[in-house]
């Protein structure tokens, strides 16, 4: 019985082979020489640097799409753009000016037959690159030039700096690429007057009118005040008079890991500022309320008196040498003011009122109202080159990067604003807890009154 079944299967297989001597071409389509119908009812919507043309497609069953033929400049290279048969419009962009242009639209079918052409006229609105140029602001900054722009259209642009050399030639320094509103500081120039030129370019190599300017970059120096023996004279504000507890600042210090180590030009593994163990940011230390024992508060704060008015350009944060420490900083913000920080007397010696002003802690009715009197000038978010967000993900290259110093710019909008006091808000360390260790920090800018 089993032998009979095998015989039936074998005969059936031979029959199948005789019927399928050639495998079918599932992609085979009938080709013809019949042109598709024209598109109709074209409607033009002019946009910045281009146009959107909407139309009615012909009813051909084998329609592939629509081709647009045009040039960016009169007498320039002929270009083509395509839109599929699944949509009834085509978008053309990259035009360098607002001149009228003829666009030829042709329907194409799957046999590559083309319809009779139909011409439409477009008149692009002001190109995005020119709108961005109109928003351009250029000022001197520390060791260079500060450039700011608005890019609401999110156009891909390059912002290039050209600098005059000793022979009077303008040479390209660097091009910064972006598709956002923003700013950039071109650095590396000494404190003498020279000619600079800013040139904006888009992805189609269109350029806006250059901005030529004569500027003197601001003088930049290490602004950390030090005594002749090299020890910083910057002050941990409120630590000596114990008013740190009135501001929600770190109140302690672990062993000999004092504040001055933050600026002693060393980031060795055992040379850092340690603002205290867990009990020093226990809420009870600030409110003196036994019900607050064990409530660890975040963010914590560190207030610094630079002892003299200072204009700030950038800062550099070093991690300790050796392996990454989980208490190294991850996310901080830096605020500044030139006014003496409020103390107990400003709140009628009411500690809860002071903590409400200086913190956002719910238990004390925190409002963070102090931010209305200070200016945020910096943000420190430590994302290593690998993109790691957890300590165990850091590579050896990431560690070398952090230990060689991570540089951040202060907000260049305040480069010419003198400040005396800084407040660092400590949100997270690498392991996402409250305590931040400060290995070595450098600050640059210029001192107003030495």
UniProtKB/TrEMBL annotation:
Gene3D superfamilies: Galactose-binding domain-like (2.60.120.260). This is DUF4959 domain-containing protein. Residues 127-223 form the DUF5126 domain. InterPro entries: DUF4959, DUF5000, DUF5126. Residues 19-124 form the DUF4959 domain. Residues 298-445 form the DUF5000 domain. Pfam families: DUF4959, DUF5000, DUF5126. It comes from bioreactor metagenome.
């Amino acid at each position: 019985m089993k032998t009979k079944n095998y015989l039936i299967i074998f005969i059936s297989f031979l029959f199948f082979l005789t019927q399928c001597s050639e495998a079918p071409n599932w992609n085979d389509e009938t080709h013809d020489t019949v042109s598709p119908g024209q598109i109709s009812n074209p409607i033009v919507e002019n946009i910045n640097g281009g146009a959107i043309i909407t139309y009615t497609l012909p009813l051909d069953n084998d329609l592939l799409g629509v081709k647009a033929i045009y040039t960016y400049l009169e007498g320039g290279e002929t270009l083509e753009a395509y839109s599929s048969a699944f949509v009834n419009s085509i978008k053309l962009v990259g035009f360098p000016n607002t001149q009228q242009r003829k666009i030829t639209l042709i329907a194409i079918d799957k046999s590559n037959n083309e319809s009779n052409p139909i011409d439409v006229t477009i008149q692009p609105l002001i190109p995005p690159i020119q709108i961005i140029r109109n928003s351009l602001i250029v000022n001197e900054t520390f060791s260079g030039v500060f450039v700011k722009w608005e890019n609401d259209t999110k156009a891909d642009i390059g912002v290039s700096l050209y600098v005059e050399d000793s022979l009077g030639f303008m040479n390209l320094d660097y091009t910064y690429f972006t598709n956002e509103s923003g700013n950039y500081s071109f650095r590396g120039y000494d404190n003498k007057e020279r000619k600079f030129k800013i040139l904006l370019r888009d992805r189609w190599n269109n350029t806006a009118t250059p901005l030529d300017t004569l500027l003197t970059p601001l003088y930049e120096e290490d602004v950390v005040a030090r005594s002749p023996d090299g020890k910083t004279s910057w002050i941990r504000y409120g630590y000596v008079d114990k008013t740190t507890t009135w501001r929600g600042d770190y109140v302690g210090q672990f062993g000999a890991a004092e504040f001055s180590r933050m600026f002693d030009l060393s980031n060795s593994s055992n040379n850092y500022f340690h603002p205290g163990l867990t009990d020093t940011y226990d809420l009870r230390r600030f409110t003196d309320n036994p019900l607050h024992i064990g409530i660890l508060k975040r963010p914590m704060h560190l207030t610094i008196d630079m002892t003299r008015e200072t204009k700030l350009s950038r800062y550099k944060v070093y991690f300790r040498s050796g392996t990454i420490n989980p208490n190294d900083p991850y996310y901080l913000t830096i605020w500044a003011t030139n006014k003496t920080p409020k103390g107990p007397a400003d709140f009628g010696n009411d500690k809860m009122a002071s903590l409400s002003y200086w913190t956002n802690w719910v238990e004390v009715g925190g409002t963070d109202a102090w931010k209305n009197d200070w200016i945020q000038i910096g943000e420190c978010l430590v994302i290593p080159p690998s993109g790691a967000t957890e300590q165990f993900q850091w590579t050896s290259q990431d560690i070398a990067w952090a230990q060689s110093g991570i540089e951040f710019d202060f907000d260049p909008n305040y480069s010419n604003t003198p400040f005396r006091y800084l407040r660092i808000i400590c949100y997270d360390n690498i392991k996402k807890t409250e305590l931040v260790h400060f290995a070595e920090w450098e600050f640059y800018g210029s001192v107003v009154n030495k």
